[in-house]
Design goal:
single chain; about 130 residues; alpha/beta; Rossmann fold; 4 helices; 5 strands; about 40% helix
Length: about 130
């Protein structure tokens, strides 16, 4: 099953992304495993503790302690998570900083249904 992670310190942002993903599930008759995390530290700890592997990760950059970029750097060093498709969801204007971790895409907040659907289509049809 396709596994998606959502990591954002703001519950409303996580809920919005989850709702948009669920709309896609209903329309396309697919089912995803979706996990939510409120910090990069929580995400990394749960990956290690549970052995989670994500196909797609929506990652906020501006979080309280560990930034999304630093979280992504650590994920890219992990053998199990190095191939995960990462989408930064951010209000940051400097998108060049994210290129070192090879994100699938960078979305500006707020996310739209169309952008989320396009990303899901892209990763689901990826060979």
């Amino acid at each position: 099953m396709f596994t998606i992670g959502i990591c954002d310190d703001r519950p409303l942002s996580r809920r919005l992304l989850e709702a948009l993903i669920h709309l896609y599930e209903e329309e396309q008759n697919v089912l995803f495993n979706i996990y939510e995390f409120s910090s990069g530290e929580e995400l990394l700890a749960e990956i290690e503790k549970q052995g989670l592997v994500f196909n797609l990760l929506f990652l906020d950059n501006s979080m309280k302690k560990l930034s999304g970029l630093e979280t992504a750097r650590q994920l890219r060093q992990s053998k199990s998570m190095s191939a995960c498709s990462i989408v930064f969801v951010t209000s940051a204007e400097d998108h060049a900083q994210f290129m070192e971790v090879k994100p699938l895409q960078i979305l500006c907040k707020p996310c739209t249904r169309e952008r989320i659907e396009a990303i899901l289509e892209k990763v689901l049809t990826k060979p």
